[in-house]
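Q: Can I see a sequence and its folded structure?
A: Here is a first one.
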Amino acid sequence: MNLSPAIWAITIVAFLVAIGLDLLIADRKPHVLSTKEAATWVLIYVGLAVAFGLTLGQLAGNAYSQQFFAGYLTELSLSVDNLFVFLVLLTSFVVPKEYEHRILMLGIVIALILRGVLIALGAAVINTFSASFYLFGAFLLFTAVQVVRHRNDRPAPGKNPLFKLVQRVIPTVETYDKGKFFTTIGKHRYATPLFVVILAIGTTDLLFAFDSIPAIYGLTEEPFIVFTANAFALLGLRQLFFLISGLVERLIYLSFGLAIILGFIGVKLIFHAMAKTGLFGWSFEIDLPVSLLVIALTLAGTTLASLVKSRQLANPSN
């Protein structure tokens, strides 16, 4: 895709406006998001993503549309794993319910900026070194194994290097001061837990980006599609958190589903690298429609299996 700087600028501005409006709504009247309200916003953002993907297909071709939807589904599935970490962080720092909106939105903004940097770096590496697909593929296979091995581990926010750094460099207090990031006690200024949580969420999401960026580059080499798929997946993450925060614990097979997706894309990347470098005369590649089907079936299958198993555990007599 040969896109002009103007198209990139318009796209970035559009996402910034959407994020700004979302943040404005979250800050204007802090409240606990109801299931109905969260579901409405999630449907709006999913609808926008679908409309964007279909429009992309009409303007640039169905192949690009398929790449977007495959990338969007992959990023959305990985984002569900992010939600569990967000839940642990918010619970660990005892964040008041009315401020969770603001925390999540600002953390997502930070994550989007950091992912943008990684997307640009990934594109530069791919354009320079075709063999980099071997590295990306091997990394995803390694990650898939780690996801299964550590599926029962729980994140420890206190181990976050940035959190420790903040405590050493910036004086902090353990109490919240309404929705403020900094508070003044006497003549001294202190960071509140709200400030630390935002940094923790932003940097923790960056760790997830090291998995998701190589994963989506296994589905498309177009930086524009990589960026928009990530942006759309992150846009509705705040509302999705409130919609499924009670459901996350029931997705007991989510780790296996993510491992299958990451492992599959890792193999796809290695096949692509072998075909591109001509290793052993290899020419076979996994088509995008096949990738889209595998991702969709894996998500649907693991979600259904998780809900059935959770129901059995909740009602052992049935």
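Q: Show me another, different protein.
A: A second, unrelated one:
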Amino acid sequence: MSSLALGSNTFPVEVTHISGHGIWLLTQTEELFLSYEDFPWFKNQAVNAILRVEESSPNHFYWPEIDVDLTAEMIKHPEWFPLQAAHK
């Protein structure tokens, strides 16, 4: 008897909450908070644009409608990564 090969993990990354202070992102391993102070690109966006997030590779997240590309490390330690673009 042989075992079947397991498929890839299909757990999607998901924005679980949007508040006046920032957004919560649920990944396969943890929940991350993105404050608007550290990630100003999200502050005045439409809810649909914030909710549409893709995990392009492990711990690498992309919001195509906002054109924001972040890693889990950037989210956990924004002080290590100065803002690269001005927000609108």
